[in-house]
Design a protein that fits this description.
- Strands 2-3-1-4 form a four-stranded antiparallel sheet.
- Helix 2 packs across helix 3.
- By secondary structure, the chain is of the alpha+beta class.
- It has six helices and four strands.
- It has helices at 3-14, 20-27, 31-43, 80-84, 111-125, 148-156, and strands at 63-71, 90-95, 102-108, 127-133.
- Residues 1-62 form the HTH asnC-type domain.
């Protein structure tokens, strides 16, 4: 990926609503050149979409938990993500190495709602669960720094020497 495209990706990751004019100012390109590059990044799948970051407390979902799941029958098909897709309280499903097969990030209204969701997860996917309740989140949704100097500078130094 070209350095200028990495810069655009970094800027958009920090602020997905950044205007083409602001992107142009930050990158030194024309507005039309930035627009073309962003469209190319979208077509290539580098930029897959834009999303609003929701205040979950404000919408009545203050309880976040991570639910580790593993099949009760290890010989059963590995189809838990498909079996759980209908449960809207599951925000993310990560395949992991270790004792568990997947870790789910869930958001619910209350401990009782979490208990209900855990029952639904167990019944839907025929899995056992281990749950960790989040007490607070100091940070989340951090933008990655994909610019070359952030990646390569630590290994080679600012002048490129090892």
């Amino acid at each position: 990926m070209e350095e200028i495209d990495r810069r655009i990706v970094t800027l958009l990751a920090r602020d997905g609503r950044m205007s083409f004019t602001d992107l142009a100012r930050e990158t030194g390109l024309s507005v039309s050149a930035v627009h073309q590059r962003v469209r190319r990044l979208e077509k290539r799948g580098v930029v897959r979409g834009y999303a609003a970051i929701i205040d979950h407390d404000a919408v009545g979902l203050p309880l976040t938990a991570f639910v580790s799941i593993k099949p009760i029958d290890p010989a059963a098909p590995d189809d838990a993500p498909e079996r759980l897709a209908h449960l809207a309280a599951i925000e993310a499903c990560h395949s992991v190495a270790g004792d568990e097969s997947y870790i789910l990030k869930v958001r619910v209204a209350s401990p009782a709602a979490l208990e209900d969701l855990l029952q639904q997860i167990r019944a839907s996917a025929n899995v056992s669960t281990r749950t960790t309740v989040v007490l607070s989140t100091p940070y989340e949704h951090r933008a990655p720094d994909v610019e070359p100097e952030a990646v390569g500078e630590a290994a080679t130094g600012p002048d490129g020497a090892a």
